[in-house]
Amino acid sequence: MKIVHACEQTLRIDAKLRNARVDFSEMTATIVAIATDQFRDGRRVAGYAFNSFGRYACGGPMRERFIPRLLAAPPSDLLDPDSGRLDPPRAVAALLRREKAGAHAERSMAVGTLELALWDAAAKLEGRPLYQTLAERYGVAGAGEPRAIPCYAGGGFYKPADDRALLLREIQGYLDAGYRDVKIKAGGLPLAEDLDRIESALSLLQNGSRLALDASCAFGRDEALAYARAIAPYGLRWLEEPCDPADFETYRAVSQAYPGLVAGGENLYSKEEAENFLRYGPAGARLILQPDPPLAYGVGEFHRIVRIAARHGVPAARIMPHGGNLMSLHVAAGLGLGGAESYPGLFGAFGGFGREVRIQEGRASLPASPGIGFEEQPELYRIFTALPLNA
Amino acid sequence: MKIVHACEQTLRIDAKLRNARVDFSEMTATIVAIATDQFRDGRRVAGYAFNSFGRYACGGPMRERFIPRLLAAPPSDLLDPDSGRLDPPRAVAALLRREKAGAHAERSMAVGTLELALWDAAAKLEGRPLYQTLAERYGVAGAGEPRAIPCYAGGGFYKPADDRALLLREIQGYLDAGYRDVKIKAGGLPLAEDLDRIESALSLLQNGSRLALDASCAFGRDEALAYARAIAPYGLRWLEEPCDPADFETYRAVSQAYPGLVAGGENLYSKEEAENFLRYGPAGARLILQPDPPLAYGVGEFHRIVRIAARHGVPAARIMPHGGNLMSLHVAAGLGLGGAESYPGLFGAFGGFGREVRIQEGRASLPASPGIGFEEQPELYRIFTALPLNA
What we know:
Two copies of one chain form a homodimer. Chain A is built from twelve helices and twelve strands. In chain A, the strands form two sheets. In chain A, strands 4, 5, 6, 7, 8, 9, 10, 11 and 12 form a nine-stranded mixed sheet that branches. The interface between A and B is large, with 49 and 49 residues.
């Protein structure tokens, strides 16, 4: 098994969206493709991935360091010595030689996106969907079974005009599509207006549907505590990212004052950052943890974070990977986590799970295609296959 | 005052060096040049900078986000509204619009390097060396005075062959060149051999010369404590980076157990990371703090870190910027800090301070040229001026 080519490209994500802190008008993503020398069903086995949502493209370090290192890696850096199978976390360790400690975000997205593409290829080589490969490699009992897993719809961004009407139409669309739990943005309006917006959303969510809020790191300590106090009576699913991801003291204070769950983790880029967040930040008993696999060195590091979280009192059932895409769906299923996020209709070709995944009663069915299954997400797959992989 | 052009380039730093964790055989740097529409002495005022040492080039985010944003910025994003002068930290705030919280290292080097180039231009527009501009802008009494500031030689990397003989020759060279304090790498050999290497170095350092050690994040907790215990009798200048930069518990334990000073900070990339390091990590009373200006959003963020450090019991006299280059020398002088580092003879054209700076009795004189003064570092200046700035 050899890797014969790898390439990447920066693409604009066309998203007229705004959360409490930023708009996404300049947002980009990096897509990667990795070609192996293996064939299955007459086609060359290739792996594809992209660097999730919400962080800009990371092609610089890929082009300048990590793709050249990957292509130069000897088989002993890529393959499990016992099974001879492609071993993506082993490849990551090789990519990180000659890297100084710290500064994870400078490289974790480039390395993590390559790792996911390697997992796509690894599962295709085994002829099964990625979640089954992950469940076996990490020994998660039952996680390789075909099933449907909990999945909520993320959205509710602030719109420049007609925000309330569009929000209600959006949520109704999620419910009609089979979702039950919905997450909307929070903290982007004066408190009273935001509460009114929340109450509008709640008016649509009955019969076991729950509302979660994402404050997108909007608040300082006092604001965060005041906001948590104001929303406490609603009994929401969770309050996500009330403050800066490094403001551990505020996270802890909110998790102590707020009677519900506090969520966070999409801005943690390594096991070291996750360890400190869990050690100094929110109480583990009150936390929903949400790292994003391709942003944070990939599945291998995600699995390390799952084990660290367990030591801090966060069980797998309260870990839900960020990034509403097929990569996070496979990680949620294969590692036996609490569920997945989805961004139906957002982020253009990058949003959604493709035509294999059905949403029903708040659960997402799992893909059956080998690998991640981008092949069954036609608009995105066309973008991947336009990469000059056989150049 | 307008910025009419900006460009960057990735260059290899030819360095056959090894510390306790990594070698530098693939090391690169990013250089930038920014052209204004202003002229002084018949020449167009341009600003130059590079992204310090030890972190790879950061051209990706510069090309894809920050240079386009800088060139598109209206004057109100670049100029102080009262004085009309170029205001680099104001430009940084504009560059960071549309950036999510966290993930600082992904952009802090690109933004910080551009900020230093803007400071170079700002000081040239005022016709004075950068440290004088900084002393005035930040109101640091006496820091604008021409003088010599404490400066130590950093080096002592592990060599593939003849390590001991080369180390002694290197240290003797520093002493002959006018340095007194010297820092060498540590933690890259078994303890007994490392101690023997330290004793060799100490045999050359008499008459007030002091030795500092840089362990380059080599150790876990137990090793770090054992190492600190073993070197305690030598009474060294400081022990730098005994562990991972995010391993706050080990930092704190070492700073409590070791009777001397503990140093760290070159792997902190924002005020948020510095705040947590100071809050949870080493005791402020025992710390030498060493952030690197272009790696961590530039001088504006460095000044914020200086103020945060003061709240944690670290006075300016115990802050010494990482990065033995003219940029850090100006920051050390202009903000009235404890001193500067120097890497004489290392890192090719990027090492050293140029022909204006004299080293005498362990102090470095300050440059008199307007701006940072790369013009008086001819080999490096040729590299800057080869950029297609007027294309």
